[in-house]
Amino acid sequence: MSRRWIHNPNRCADEYLDGIEDFIEFARRQNPGATRIRCPCRRCNNTLWETIENVGFHLVRNGMIETYSIWNLHGEQVDHASSSNAPRVDNVEPIVDPNDQVMGIIQDVFPFASTNINQEGEDDVPTPIDSAEFEQYEKLLKNANQELYQGCESFSVLTAIVELMHGKIKYRMSNLCFDYFLGVFKRMLPTDNCLPKDHKHAQKVLHGLGLGYEKIHACKNNCMLLYKEHETLDTCPICNESRFKMTSQNRTTKIPQKVMRYLPLKPRLQRLYMSTHTATDMRWHKEKRVDDDVMRHPADGEAWKEFDRTFPEFAADPRNVRLGLATDGFNPYGVLNQHHSTWPIFAFSYNLPPWKCMKKEYMMMTVLITEDHGSQLMCT
């Protein structure tokens, strides 16, 4: 049967709804008596089990994975050209080597470095690479190739850190809790293991992946940010307030009065174009959106269309990024501290389709502002 309906962006079309009915019927036939099957929607990604009725609902709401054209996880046999007796594929998770996944991440972050290493000895002139960037690449590559302990083939140092940090974030583990379990794991492993001893050292290893942030000092009275041409000043040029707190003379390090944390946005937007899947989704608003006067996405609104008419050169390239900003203040300490507030600023890419642009994994926190004196920080 034809599977073209999977790529139909209009999930209300008769072709798409009929395709879902064909899939549900196929799944019932291949799994007789089963009450739950893997859900192939874009959110569950064949990793979660749902009732057959819920699977149909998910496919209408989220859409099916576009690459899932052979339903092998639901009982379909793979047609091998070399053999007419194709074995049946069991409903098991696809085996993915975590070390290969980590190497893929490194190649995505440093595509030019990876290309130059692969093209060594060829006639083409390699792309020039910044020395500091290449040094970061070599450090990550070393950790990706180094065994967690002698004889360990399942995990490299970098793979182990990525897996543990992923679990920390997924299950909202505090740094103290993470340090405790990291210490326990380190004692469980052979004495020659290379696992970091705490969260701080694990972060240093991952720093080369570009997951860090910049600390920008701010005036105590919220006059300005002390960066760029004002980065070397010790006092605010507007109110003459000291940049640093008064500390004992024996202290060698200076403590800033106020700090704003900036998470660079440009590298994260670039990563959306490093993967073929997200790169295609970043052009969805232009290439796959159904223009039928129905409001499903900001691109259907009059404000978006008026912007296109005003700036035709920008609108001509669908890869140009359109962002939305959102912020709100909250007090993480509740009633324990009435004079503290935190202001995170999030950016959303409206290039993505509506079922992705507001998902948690595509929300990018760009700035974190903390205020301890009850007044708002004015960024200029």
UniProtKB/TrEMBL annotation:
InterPro entries: Transpos_assoc, Transposase_21
Transposase-associated domain boundaries: 3-76
The protein's name in its UniProt record: Transposase-associated domain-containing protein
